[in-house]
Amino acid sequence: MGKRVAVMLAGCGVYDGSEIHESSAVLVHLSREGAQAEVYAPNVDQMHVVDHVKGQPTQEKRNVLVESARIARGNIKDLAKLDVKELDALIIPGGFGVAKNLSTWATQGKNCVVSKEVEAALKAFHAARKPIGLCCISPVLAAKIFPGCELTVGQDTECEKWPYAKTAETMKELGCKHVNKHVTEIHVDAKNKLVTTSAFMCNAPMHEIYDGIGKMVKEVVRLA
């Protein structure tokens, strides 16, 4: 039997949900590693819905679980039903939904609140010494919940290639250690069993983002 890995989604679409290419890359690489992906999402309303053509919020209302089901091809479970005892690892792709629907990072930064269900899941895997993979913006969840942990969101100096580098500084303010890495690299916090990679925090070619996520997934499965 392959490893059973929970993949937690936050909606569907970079600006208000899970980043679709990152989510797809996680699922493809899990398949390649012979692991069984089990997709979960919280059954809550999105913070808001963004028109991805205009980049502007609309008046629509959408549900995180229902939207995440688009990526999961309908094969998805309510996060409330996650049982850590039946699973070997957890991976959370990025996308603004992590900072809007799984937490309030988008509006409150380091003073954010992580959703109770999301925090409970992360703490359960951590307490069971089961690995957690995080990419793009999702490492901020670990920065908030596990003080002193080691993470990467890429680089900590803002430039055209790294437009979100200030995130690293904010994470440091929470007491965690940020490790600068290139987009194709990962960082492993062996003590906390956290594996992180920057993905779309970097303005990089799609295949480099895909490769970095692949290394993250491979290491998560190995640690499981």
TrEMBL record:
What the entry lists under NCBIfam families is as follows: PRK11780.1 (NF008747)
Provide the protein name.
GAL3A protein
Looking up InterPro entries in the UniProt record yields: Class_I_gatase-like
> Which CDD domains does its entry note?
GATase1_ES1
Q: Which species is this record about?
A: Rhinopomastus cyanomelas
